[in-house]
Design goal:
This protein is α+β, with helices and mostly antiparallel strands. The protein is built from 3 helices and 10 strands, in the order E-E-E-H-E-E-E-H-E-H-E-E-E.
Length: about 170
């Protein structure tokens, strides 16, 4: 089984996947991130609530830069290292990616009628795609077609105020 965990500043989402070729999430749980004192507490909680299956791989999609060896969420005080996740899960492979990079990688599996075009006209099924969304910060990642493959370009959209904080006027 493949364990996927999305660690957000507000919520943590867990799911198992039997296959990554045609990913179908199983045993999905969504819990407020603030409920846990540590990432290892969160993983132990989820594993205690799901049917026992050997975990082969773990992917942690985190709300922040995916640079280790100590990974830290941008808008939360939680941090972890891969070794601690490996000890709890028994998995040999632990990957850490930006949360919106993970969302962008999943875009080819979302039915076309559930995607929104940001421009009028023909929807190019092979065109560049964007995963964008507000959460505790503003997350974004781009999915681009290179030959026959899709490639994710991760980005931290920002964790700043969205609107101007001072008076201003447009001059044309």
């Amino acid at each position: 089984m493949h364990l996927v965990i999305e660690l957000g500043g507000t919520n943590t989402r867990f799911a198992f996947f039997r296959s990554l070729v045609e990913p179908v999430p199983e045993c999905v749980r969504v819990i407020p991130t603030s409920r846990f004192n540590s990432v290892t507490d969160a993983v132990e909680w989820y594993l205690s609530k799901t049917p026992s299956s050997p975990v082969e791989n773990v992917c942690l999609a985190i709300a922040g830069p995916a640079r280790g060896p100590a990974y830290r969420l941008t808008n939360n005080n939680l941090s972890f290292e891969k070794d601690s996740i490996a000890r709890i899960t028994g998995a040999k492979n632990i990957d850490v990616v930006n949360d919106f990079a993970a969302f962008a990688a999943y875009l080819p599996y979302i039915p076309g009628d559930e995607l929104v075009s940001v421009r009028a006209g023909y929807q190019d099924r092979a065109g560049t795609r964007l995963a964008l969304g507000p959460g505790t910060g503003m997350g974004m990642a781009v999915l681009v077609r290179v030959g026959r493959s899709w490639h994710v370009v991760a980005s931290e959209g920002g964790n700043t105020g969205f609107s101007p904080a001072t008076r201003w006027k447009l001059i044309f």
